[in-house]
Amino acid sequence: MTGIYDDPWAYELACSFRDVPAEVDVLLGWCAEHRPAGRPGTVLELAAGPAEHAREFARRGLAATALDLNPQMCAYAAREAARAEVEVEVVQDDMTRFDLGRRFDLIVTMLDSTSHLMTLDAFVAHLRRAAAHLSPGGLYIVEMSHPRDRLGDEPTVSTGWTVERGGVHASVRWGEPGDRLDPVTQIADDHVTVTITGDGDVVAPGNGDARVLRDVVPYRFWTATELDAAIRLASGLEVVAQYGDFGAGADTVALTDPEAWRMITILRGA
Q: How far apart, in whole angstroms, are the C-alpha atoms of residue 73 and residue 144?
């Protein structure tokens, strides 16, 4: 069994259905709307994994830093930034305890990485660290799963999908029907299976043309009211907007919209 987070290339492939440049367009648009100073000059991506968003910010001229706890992810993020010829500072650290000694105009946490915060104490500690690293008027944008996915009868996000990139195909199952959310801890052990096929030299050098990764990923579900409570307990941050998708202008999706599939919260230093 190989952990999905210990194989950054496979993880990035599995998540490649995301349109990172388009999402960064919207993130910068929200900065223009909600940040008094407008466009940020510095950005910190927390729980960054492969640091795709940090790399995209760097391509656009921002001074980008990516932080992650996993050493394999950090090494991969640094290699990919170098390969893309963009400058990204990569830091291995814990999102609840980091202290970088400087502040940022924008901080982001993407792909529901706050689900790795298993307790309210951990979430509050994380928010306090983020607040301490925001420059005056800076924004912290947090992307989380929509509560409908765990509380509703009809989830907005499928647990299975396929992606293809560069002649390599991946079939992803992130969660199985038997993966139940514990009603007390609000933690589920999500069973993950990624089956990768295609170019043997890329997929599994020396082992044919297929690779299967299996993992069990603990997932902590956070409700909207728990998020609000964590923000209040942390202090130092205020909610300036919430959205249900990466849309802006006429394409803005409210958190309460039936089409909302994410819970995206924009926080500003109080």
A: 20
* Number of domains within the chain: 2
How far CA 116 is from CA of 41, 112, 120, 163, 236, in Å, comes to 28, 8, 11, 24, 22
Where is 22: in which H helix or E strand?
helix 20-34
Do 122 and 239 belong together in one domain? yes
Question: What is the C-alpha separation between 229 and 184, in angstroms, rounded?
Answer: 17
pTM of the model: 0.94
Residue 115 has phi, psi (to 5 degrees) of -70, -10
Per residue in 147-180, pLDDT tens?
998 887 776 777 899 999 989 999 999 999 899 9
pLDDT digits (tens, 9 = 90+) for 197-212: 987 555 654 455 789 9
Residues recorded for the chain: 270
Residue 14 near residue 203 (C-beta atoms within 8 A): no
Phi and psi at 58, nearest 5°, equal -65, -40
Stretch (H or E) spanning 64: strand 63-68
Strand partners, 83: none
Do 132 and 245 belong together in one domain? yes
